[in-house]
Design goal:
The structure holds two protein chains of two kinds. Helices cover about 75% and strands about 0% of the residues of chain A. Chain A contains ten helices and no strands. Chain A has helices spanning about 10-15, 30-45, 50-60, 70-85, 95-130, 135-160, 165-175, 175-205, 210-230, 235-254. In chain A, helix 1 packs antiparallel against helix 2 and helix 8 (about 175-205) crosses helix 9 (about 210-230). Chain A is elongated and about 80 Å long. In chain A, about 50% of the residues are buried. Chain B is mostly helical. Chain B folds into two domains: about 1-190, no CATH class; about 190-230. Chain B has helices at about 1-20, 30-40, 45-55, 70-90, 95-135, 140-175, 180-185, 190-205, 210-230. Chains A and B meet through helix 2, helix 3, helix 5, helix 6 and helix 8 of A and helix 2, helix 3, helix 5, helix 6 and helix 7 of B.
């Protein structure tokens, strides 16, 4: 059985639709509806005139699915290629489920660490620091810095996936996201140190000599350390803010 | 004022869509949202001041798996609109600024609860979608996704409307009840807030060298800032 190669317009439709991967995020299937929606143009193409098989294919993609949304592009691209093989009778349909389940957890962990744990904090601190000069400069820098990397990884991941599931591991090696994560975390820490220094210098030193400045710095550094320890003990920012609000109310009461 | 709330709801709806359902282009970040709300309610710079501090505070909570972090987009809607209104009436003094940032915690938690509710309703949408596909309706997938997106968008617009109204109400009704001296006392807590943000980034950027580079940079920038202030 032969299947027509995926035309550019279907490929583009799948690419555009992957931005809505979380459009119907739910506690049961998580990104399942979004994934099925994204791959639907390809399925319609591969199973044209075979409605029963098309339905089976859609049901396959309504199974539980969850990963970091930007890394989803890689799995989506490879799933399109696998579906093409299944439609041509060259692969077992069960291979698609196995492939998705096998990859979504590990790619989710890599993506969470890179995007949420490194790239976003770095872009946020750059934005916050530059917004002190001008708000629009800060916003532009943050969006460009984040989306430059984010959209590139989405695009290249999708293209690598479209080359076939065999290319996924090779692409991940070349992308070296673990090294990039470390670098960006370090850069975020440096910039956050600068951010803390700027505000500590602004608020703490209202006069006095060098010893006063030193004491102010040590107090600010101790406060950062205390908050970081609280975060590590799973205390949420909301709980700390609520406590500070309580202290503020006590001050007002007095 | 009505058109300002309408605009806030529309822009807020777009930002809330970006938060979970669509694209994740960081249009939902507090720096963007608070600045937008500041511009809508008449003072972009005041909104941006709130955004600069709120941007980092909630970063320590990652949206991993099924966990939902506090709604910092909602906090920014509240803080940005409140700061803009406060700056045009009683002036955005340090005490009012601190109070707005701290009060935004209620909004962040309320937004989180609303987010959880939407995701629970989406379970029902996903089930109906699956049942329709079982009956042979492939297009149900597109309808299901559209329903989910609409729910996210409408909830975002309602939240943006409610939170911006709350911000305006706090600035117009609550803050003026406290005199300048009382608000000044509140400002004692202000230095803790940017440091909380820096600690948030510090805690999600942990590597072997994080502590060293963080505190060295902090010391260098602090020293530079102090020297600059002494020299002028």
């Amino acid at each position: 059985m032969t299947t027509p190669a995926l035309a550019m317009r279907f490929r583009s439709a799948v690419w555009r639709r992957q931005f809505l991967l979380q459009g119907c995020w739910n506690y049961e299937g998580m990104q399942n509806v979004g994934f099925a929606y994204a791959i639907l143009p390809a399925l319609r193409h591969f199973y044209a005139n075979r409605p029963e098989e098309a339905l089976k294919a859609v049901k396959r993609h309504l199974e539980f699915f969850n990963t970091q949304p930007a890394m989803g592009a890689l799995i989506l691209g490879a799933s399109v290629r696998l579906e093409e093989r299944v439609a041509a009778g060259e692969a077992d349909p069960r291979a698609i489920g196995t492939f998705k389940v096998g990859l979504m957890g590990s790619l989710g962990a890599i993506g969470d660490s890179f995007f949420w744990g490194a790239l976003r904090p770095m872009a946020s601190v750059v934005g916050a620091l530059l917004a002190l000069l001008h708000p629009l400069l800060g916003i532009a820098a943050m969006l460009l810095l984040y989306n430059g990397v984010h959209l590139t990884i989405r695009r290249r991941g999708f293209d690598a996936g479209m080359e076939g599931p065999e290319s996924v591991v090779g692409w991940l090696k070349r992308a070296a996201l673990n090294v990039r994560t470390e670098d960006r975390k370090l850069l975020a820490a440096i910039l956050a140190g600068g951010y803390a220094g700027v505000f500590a210098g602004r608020f703490f030193v209202q006069g006095g000599g060098a010893s006063h400045a030193l004491a102010s710095f040590l107090l600010a550094a101790a406060a950062v350390r205390l908050f970081a320890v609280l975060f590590r003990k799973a205390v949420s920012p909301s709980e700390i803010l609520s406590f500070l609000l309580f202290v503020g109310v006590l001050i007002l009461w007095r | 004022m009505a058109w300002r709330f309408l605009l806030a709801a529309l822009l807020g709806g777009v930002c809330y869509l970006d938060r979970t359902a669509a694209c994740q282009l960081m249009l939902h970040r507090p720096l963007v949202v608070a600045t937008l709300m500041g511009a809508v309610f008449g003072n972009m710079a005041a909104g941006a001041q709130v955004g600069v501090v709120l941007e980092l505070i909630y970063l320590a909570r990652l949206p991993v798996g099924a966990s939902i972090p506090p709604d910092d987009t909602g906090a920014a809607v509240f803080g940005g609109s409140a700061a803009a209104i406060a700056s045009s009436s009683l002036g955005l003094d340090a005490g009012s600024f601190t109070a707005l940032l701290l009060l935004s915690v209620f909004v962040a938690e309320a937004g989180k609860a609303a987010d959880r509710f939407v995701r629970k309703v989406n379970v029902r949408i996903a089930r109906i979608t699956a049942e329709s596909v079982d009956r042979g309706d492939m297009q149900a997938v597109e309808h299901g996704l559209l329903a989910g997106l609409t729910l996210f968008a409408v909830t975002g617009m309602v939240l943006a409307l409610v939170f911006s109204a709350a911000g305006v109400a706090v600035s117009k009704e609550l803050l003026p009840r406290f005199g300048p001296a009382s608000r000044g006392n509140f400002a004692v807590l202000l230095p803790a807030l940017p440091l909380l943000g820096a600690a948030s980034v510090y805690s999600c950027s942990r590597t072997e060298r994080t502590a060293a580079v963080f505190y060295l940079t902090m010391a260098a920038v602090f020293g530079g800032t102090v020297l600059f202030r002494w020299s002028v």
